[in-house]
Amino acid sequence: MADKLGVEAGMTVGDHGLGLPPTATPGEIAAAAQLACLLEAHAPKPGNVSPGRDFADVGYGDFVASAAAIGAPFCRVADVGLGALVREAVEATAKWAPSNTNLGIVLLLAPLAKAALGPNDLRSNLAGVLETTTLDDAREVYAAIRLANPGGLGRAANQDVARAPTLPLREVMRLAADRDGIALEYDTAFTATFDTGVPALRQARADGLGWDDAIVETFLTLLASAPDTHIARRAGLDRATSVSRLAVTVLADGGVRSDAGRQSVARFDRSLRDDRHSANPGTTADLTAAALFVLLLEGGWAAGPQASSL
Predict the structure, then answer these.
(1) DSSP element (H, E) containing 270
(2) Which runs of consecutive H residues, i.e. helices, occur in 59-163?
(3) 3-state DSSP call for residue 308?
(4) From CA 243, how far away is CA 19, in angstroms rounded?
(5) What pLDDT score was predicted for residue 17?
(6) Cα separation of 299 and 33, whole Å?
(7) pLDDT > 90? residue 163
(8) CB 112 within 8 A of CB 294
């Protein structure tokens, strides 16, 4: 596989290390999805669960179990529709995790996984995947959302998840794009992932940062670029906006690249933690996982610093 790096598909990271060929097998795609989830969960992102930083109702071990659980469904990426892939992954997760741990991640990784099956570059393939979503996809995703039962979901006047959808999945997502960062990615063909998350992660790795630091920097970059919609739903847009401004400040202080920056990261993390997790930037964490998945599909595991270094 090493002699079939992403050159044929114009993949920039795959040129520098071992990675997936332009058209990956379902097993390879599933492995990359699991690894993306594991890397994202391990990194000490402010306001999120990571090793030694559990919430009262969910811990790092639950995210590890969730990453393992999605392997079998993602191995079926070539055999099922997009919506069914989401539902099967959420159902598999529910057998191992006590609460919603990865709905947003699965919603983002599933269309990327379908795109990775195609012969062209990932972003071009993704546009085709999103343009051809169906009503059945929407029905399956609605079932997955009801099963995961994410907090702070609220109600919508049109195409509410409590009722049966009447539009294809992308159209349903478009209706929610003004209030949900995952839906916005479906509407914009993953603009935040490809234009903000992946470049930040790629640059961090090229600069020699280990995975944990690169992931935290990517997370901060995404959070600085737009208010987190999970925070907005739970604590209001003003709180979400203030958190994004703090992320800008943390990056300006040096982020993970200096002692002063690391102190700023630690203060930021403490400011985001409360008993209700109302300032948990969960959507930004999901977007970070999507950026990781893309980089891994491009061959980023062995690019830059030693791959095993966290």
Answers:
(1) helix 259-271
(2) 60-69, 71-75, 82-94, 103-115, 122-131, 135-148
(3) coil
(4) 35
(5) 37
(6) 13
(7) no
(8) yes
Structure tokens at 245: 């401004």
Model pLDDT, residue 217: 98
Amino acid identity, position 286: D
CB burial class (10 A; 0-12, 13-18, 19+) of residue 131?
exposed
β-partners of residue 53 are 50
Contact 180/229 with Cβ under 8 angstroms? yes
Question: pLDDT value at position 105?
Answer: 98
Cα–Cα distances in angstroms (integers) from residue 23 to residues 20, 116, 284, 303, in the given order = 8, 6, 28, 19
Q: How far is CA 1 from the centre of its chain?
A: 26
Tell me the C-alpha distance between 54 and 182, whole Å.
24
CA atoms within 13 A on the CB side of 164: 3
Nearest-angstrom CA–CA distance, 9 and 291:
18
Q: Can you give the pTM of this predicted structure?
A: 0.90
Query: Token pair 């990571």 is at which residue?
Result: 50
Residue with tokens 């919508």: 156
pLDDT, tens digit, 9 for 90 and up, residues 117-128 = 998 899 999 999
| pLDDT class of 276 with cuts at 50, 70, 90 | confident
pLDDT at 31 over 60: yes
What's the pLDDT at 301?
A: 86
Asked whether the beta carbons of 56 and 273 are under 8 A apart, the reply is no
Other CB atoms within 10 A of residue 178 CB: 10
Structure tokens at 211: 């995975």
Per-residue pLDDT tens over the stretch 288-310: 999 999 999 999 887 666 655 56
pLDDT for the residue 7: 28
C-alpha 278/C-alpha 252 separation (Å) is: 25
